[in-house]
């Protein structure tokens, strides 16, 4: 009954639980503590910068001057990451993959210090049916993941 005293009459009538069963915390206190800080991306700049030759075992291809067109190939087996810094407007295409094996291609697009380069993403079934926006702001990074399980016949993409 002590827990019930911490709830307003409206909350009690609405049947709101005084604590979160997973943590034992009052939901409002939990939200206040966890929403107070800045929202941080799961993949930080230092993690991206430190990924070259990293311990994940996923091959990393770094391309700093791709020109106007670049084909990103899925690995023959497993996953792969492409880290691309455009030097002009860039059009990307995808190739490869293995039928019957779910494969992931992670694309890290970094705008150089000068920025302003548009990037045309390859055709894919994008999350929500909307092609992601690639930042053209100097120094900004856009990360997009592509997946296929039929050698690239069907490609799914999302941020």
Give the helix/strand layout.
Blueprint: H1 2-5, H2 9-14, H3 27-35, H4 45-49, E1 60-63, E2 69-73, E3 80-84, E4 90-95, E5 99-110, E6 119-120, E7 125-126, E8 141-150, E9 156-158
Parallel strand pairs: 1-3, 2-4, 3-5, 4-6, 7-9
Antiparallel strand pairs: 5-8, 8-9
How does this model look, in words?
The structure is a single chain. The protein is α/β, with parallel strands linked by helices and 159 residues long. It is 15% helix and 31% strand. The protein is built from 4 helices and 9 strands; from the N terminus they run H-H-H-H-E-E-E-E-E-E-E-E-E. It has a 6-stranded mixed β-sheet, with no helix packed on it.
Outline:
With 159 residues, the protein is α/β, with parallel strands linked by helices.
The end-to-end distance, rounded to whole angstroms, is 46 Å
Q: Regions with pLDDT < 50 over 5+ consecutive residues?
A: 1-5, 34-55
Question: What is the mean predicted local confidence, pLDDT?
Answer: 78
Total strands: the figure is 9
């Amino acid at each position: 009954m002590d827990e019930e005293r911490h709830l307003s009459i409206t909350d009690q009538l609405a049947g709101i639980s005084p604590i979160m069963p997973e943590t034992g915390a009052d939901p409002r206190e939990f939200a206040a503590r966890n929403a107070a800080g800045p929202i941080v991306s799961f993949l930080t700049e230092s993690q991206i910068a430190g990924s070259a030759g990293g311990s994940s075992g996923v091959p990393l291809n770094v391309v700093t001057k791709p020109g106007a067109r670049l084909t990103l190939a899925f690995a023959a087996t497993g996953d792969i990451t492409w880290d691309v810094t455009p030097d002009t407007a860039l059009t990307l295409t995808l190739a490869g993959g293995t039928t019957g094996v779910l494969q992931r291609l992670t694309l890290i697009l970094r705008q150089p210090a000068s920025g302003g380069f548009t990037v045309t993403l390859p055709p894919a079934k994008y999350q929500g049916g909307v092609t992601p926006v690639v930042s053209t702001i100097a120094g900004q990074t856009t990360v997009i993941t592509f997946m296929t399980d039929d050698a690239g016949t069907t490609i799914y993409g999302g941020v």
